[in-house]
Amino acid sequence: MWDLQGMAENNAGVNRKAHLHRDTMLAASAIYQEMYGKEEGVPATFQIIYMIGWKPDPKQVREL
């Protein structure tokens, strides 16, 4: 969760519950460890997508 918090992804869901229970995290960790784990840790990857939004302003000069 610290990594997700660092990427500002710990609060990404609109319909999320306000609190993630410890039992849920432990169960998810155990399942993930069994499926993908190695003796020295658990591999994880993240996909980073950068975006920018822009909206023209009526006062902005447009060149054609």
UniProtKB/TrEMBL annotation:
<dbReference type="InterPro" id="IPR050602">
    <property type="entry name" value="Malonyl-ACP_OMT"/>
</dbReference>
<keyword id="KW-0830">Ubiquinone</keyword>
<keyword id="KW-0808">Transferase</keyword>
<dbReference type="GO" id="GO:0032259">
    <property type="term" value="P:methylation"/>
</dbReference>
<dbReference type="GO" id="GO:0032981">
    <property type="term" value="P:mitochondrial respiratory chain complex I assembly"/>
</dbReference>
<dbReference type="GO" id="GO:0008168">
    <property type="term" value="F:methyltransferase activity"/>
</dbReference>
<keyword id="KW-0489">Methyltransferase</keyword>
<protein>
    <submittedName>
        <fullName>NADH dehydrogenase [ubiquinone] 1 alpha subcomplex assembly factor 5</fullName>
    </submittedName>
</protein>
<dbReference type="GO" id="GO:0005739">
    <property type="term" value="C:mitochondrion"/>
</dbReference>
